Amino acid sequence: MQEWRDIHFTARDGLRLYARHYPAPGSSRRPVLCLAGLSRNSRDFHRLAMALAAPGSGTGRDVYTLDSRGRGLSERDPDWKSYSVLVELGDALDFMTAKALHGAAVIGTSRGGLLAMMMAVLRPSAVGAAVLNDIGPVIEREGLARIVAYIGRIPVPSDWDEATRIVHEMHRRHFPAVPAEEWAEQARAWFNEDGNGLPAPGYDRNLARSFALSDEPIPELWPQFGALAQVPVLAIRGEHSDILSAKTLEEMRVRHPRLDVFTVRGQGHAPLLRDSPTQSAIQAFLARSDG
Description:
The protein is of the alpha/beta class. The protein has helices at about 45-55, 85-100, 110-120, 140-150, 160-170, 180-190, 220-225, 245-255, 275-290, and strands at about 5-10, 15-20, 30-35, 65, 105-110, 125-135, 190-195, 200, 235-240, 260-265. The two termini are about 35 Å apart.
């Protein structure tokens, strides 16, 4: 039995987008919106969403997970220039309006966390709490260069065993704590499935055209992070992250009066949010934010 409801909606420019709703009927707790990383999608959050919705437990909350345009099951955009933070932010805000998500807890992985910070700038009432998964106001150049190197260049595997090998090889150095068998499920999250049950690209390769690393300094986003000062924030960092440094995390703690910090041991960028300690930390944080 499918644990979520499929949602198909139309962006203001006519593109058809996809989301999931993990319902918690009758819950009065703060709803959650999950926003994925640059090339990732709503399937990344399945394990976490199931834990947070906790059907039948009486302690669950509604969880929504969104495929940004060109990712997952959302349509590919014919104009690659629309793969921008501002356009994707508009899509997310429109979705929140359609679902009456006000004061939601926004869980943002990497680029999704950037969207959460921008959301607090443009529509503060939309965000009641935030979980920033391995992202902050300072993005490390080394990690960004690593991402630029593989976006749009990963070969399409011939079967799911090969997909698992590709995903495992790409991440095992930064994720020594993740067992090898976990990567088969991750492969199913990161690749789509075609009509014959075989792996297909999980995102539009044109995404790479919108995402480049220049020789200019990477802009720091302290003002955007500062917009979250009025709400509780949980900052999650992978122990081996090359995107969010321990130094930046400490500065975030100094600048934000209501910042909780959690480090995921044995994982890099970005933590998978599948292990029990991380899920427990998120659940406890959200419970406090309800109050």
